[in-house]
Amino acid sequence: MEDFKVIDNYLMIRLPDEIDHHKSVDISAKADRYILSKKVGNVVFDFERTTFMDSSGIGIILGRYKKISCFGGKVYAINADNRIRRILLMSGLQNIVEIVKA
Amino acid sequence: MIEIIEKKDTERITNEMRIEFAAISDNESFARMAIAAFIAPLNPTLEELSDVKTAVSEAVTNAIIHGYENRSRLDDRVYMKCRLQGDVLEVEVADRGIGIDDIRMAMEPLYTSRPELERSGMGFAFMEAFMDNLEVQSEPDIGTSVKMYKKIGTSSWIDSEE
Ligand SMILES: Nc1ncnc2c1ncn2[C@@H]1O[C@H](COP(=O)(O)OP(=O)(O)OP(=O)(O)O)[C@@H](O)[C@H]1O
Ligand SMILES: [Mg+2]
Predict the structure, then answer these.
(1) Cβ distance B76 to B68 under 8 Å?
(2) Does ipTM come in above 0.90?
(3) CA torsion, points B131, B25, B62, A51, in degrees to nearest 10?
(4) Is residue A64 within 8 Å of A43, Cβ to Cβ?
(5) Are the C-beta atoms of A81 and A89 separated by less than 8 Å?
(6) Which DSSP symbol is given to A17?
(7) Annotated catalytic residue: which of B27, B28, B48, B58?
(8) Which CATH number characterizes residue A71's domain?
(9) Ligand 1 centroid vs B119 CA: distance in angstroms?
(10) What pLDDT, in 10s, does the model give residues B97-144?
(11) Residue B34 is part of a domain; what is its CATH number?
(12) Alpha-carbon distance B79 to B96, whole Å?
């Protein structure tokens, strides 16, 4: 299961082992509830536990980016392994997400 | 002589499997587990395994959310056919959904018809990148078939050579 934590102005999302369309619907909905109710400005996606991600993960990140960037918020990706990093880069996400080296 | 024998070898079908499952999102992970188990005897590398799982996940997700318009009906079916010819894997994922009008446009990276579902338009691009070959056939109101091919176990074979 994914989990959510708010630290200062940052929403930390610890992503699950596998990110696909089935999982993504729930993750996006929960993240948006935090973004709205806790008024967080920035979102950090933590891939530490994640071993599989398909294009649904790109949708989660892009969707949250659209929600917070208009208020100057930033999106970060941390602990992404080589494969997930490759998928992020293939999708051009390095232009909008800060991919933090582990 | 050797060439002929090798060619015959790769053309021979060595294993085959078909599954049919309801077009609901719970079955995306089922499809990935099924393909992983099917290719396990070939000793794929971790990377090959991820490549195949990602490509299958993309094709199955497309059938569910585009072909069957994300309506989660049990009688909408996704058909998956897997075949091994020596060390070449062929996977076909098919649906009897709405089909694709313009296949070339659909396959363009970043093109999506469902931005409101937070789709990014990268599915076909990943299938192309992670498999050796990709063939898409589709007809509006009839359905879509995506065939993908990949040679498995090449890198481990080279490793054990030295
Ligand atoms: N099985 C299918 N039936 C009908 N239309 C399809 C099917 N597969 C793909 N398409 C069409 O092709 C488009 C591109 O597919 P692709 O997988 O590349 O992107 P996406 O599914 O929209 O987004 P993503 O895969 O990044 O979540 C889809 O938006 C859809 O219009
Ligand atoms: Mg897709």
Answers:
(1) yes
(2) yes
(3) -30
(4) yes
(5) no
(6) S
(7) B58
(8) 3.30.750.24
(9) 8
(10) 999 999 999 999 999 999 999 999 999 999 999 999 999 999 999 999
(11) 3.30.565.10
(12) 9
